Amino acid sequence: MQAEILSHRDIDVNVWDAFVQASPQGMIYSCHHYISALEPEWYAVVVRGADMIHAAMPIILRKKGGIMYSTQPIFTQYWGIMFRPAEANTARSFEQKRQWVKAIINALPPELRLFHYNFSPAFDYPLPFFWSGYSISPRYTNQVDLRQTTEELWANISEKARGHIRKSEKDGVVVTYGHEVEEVVHIFRKAKDEKIKNMTPAHYSAITSVAHHYAQKGMCHTMVARDADGLPVAGCIYFTFRGTTIHFLGTTDPDYKGRGAMALVIWKALLQAREHSSVFDFEGSMIEPIEQFFLSFGSVPTPYLSIKKESLPLPVRLLKRIMGK
């Protein structure tokens, strides 16, 4: 069995998106429009047969200093391999996955010196990567099971978070559901612009465009908190895909920090997400204070895999160590 690398121009949009929608590993980050808006020149390693896609992995191929590398694009929490829905027979299903993953690995360019991607929490067969010399590391996101009553959701939130929610409501903060994408991006840039490396105005423009595109399809919305004077003080963009609501991009205005507005945004977002989702994904964080904040909303640490292979020239490896990368 063989895989092939295809340019996005050679991929039928409807066929690709139908595959992503059906795949247990499919997430909005892998939809054709989403990728194309953020990374106009992208490829996919595809295993096909019997007029269907069996497995596929979107990738970015770049060169710097003559060295080819492929790494996780910004604003894509999970990429990696997606499979078509599994066979009913377990043994047959994993035999197929073994063949498909091996085919994708073998199709990667031999001159590729760095490969590093985060795979979906639903990706369940990484062993061929291990056998091929890749390193596999667990990372964690935080997810809330939305198949709870409102009372159960509230009971599972920490007392500290409940206190922040009550305080915000007492202070007259109101959270509204809508499509105020530019408002949220403005708050985010004010709070985070200097803290996030490699972010450009083009990235913010792209994600604004993506959010509006999926809002028209009913797959994206915002939750914005306004103070008693009607000023926006916190907010977040949310995507919804295959029964999962994603806490995508949001924060609090630095001038309003510590007053609990973001806690109220998340509480209202959880209640709203229950109408159409069974899972609320915080997109996780390995940074302890952020992880603790997400845990305070009754979320459960959920593992996903970071898969990497590096064969950079010695001078480049030494430079990376010196720079602490």
Number of helices: 11
How many domains is the backbone divided into?
A: 2
Which fold name is given in CATH as the topology of the largest domain?
A: Aminopeptidase
Q: Which CATH top level class of the largest domain fits?
A: Alpha Beta
**How many angstroms separate the termini?**
37 Å
Helix content: 25-40%
* Amount of beta strand: 25-35%
Question: What string gives the helices and strands in order?
Answer: EHHEEEEEHEHEHHEHHEEEHEHEH
State Rg: 21 Å
Q: Biggest sheet: strands side by side, in what order?
A: 4-5-7-14-8-13-12-11-10-9
The residue ranges in which pLDDT falls below 50 over 5 or more consecutive positions are none
Mean of residue pLDDT?
Answer: 93
Outline type: globular
Count of distinct strands: 14
Q: What class would the helix/strand composition place it in?
A: alpha+beta
Label the CATH architecture of the largest domain.
3-Layer(aba) Sandwich
The CATH superfamily name of the largest domain is Gcn5-related N-acetyltransferase (GNAT)
**Main sheet overview:** 10 strands, mixed
How would you sum up this structure, described in words?
This protein is α+β, with helices and mostly antiparallel strands. Helix 2 (32-38) runs antiparallel to helix 8 (201-216). The longest helix is centred in the first third of the chain and has 18 residues, at 90-107. The chain folds into two domains: 4-140 and 304-323, 3-Layer(aba) Sandwich (Aminopeptidase), CATH 3.40.630.30; 148-277, 3-Layer(aba) Sandwich (Aminopeptidase). A ten-stranded mixed β-sheet has the order 4-5-7-14-8-13-12-11-10-9, with helices on both faces. It has a four-stranded antiparallel β-sheet with strand order 1-2-3-6, sandwiched between helices. It has helices at residues 13-22, 32-38, 90-107, 127-131, 150-155, 159-170, 181-192, 201-216, 261-273, 288-295, 314-323, and strands at residues 4-7, 43-49, 52-59, 62-64, 67-71, 82-83, 112-118, 135-145, 174-178, 220-226, 232-241, 244-252, 279-281, 300-310.
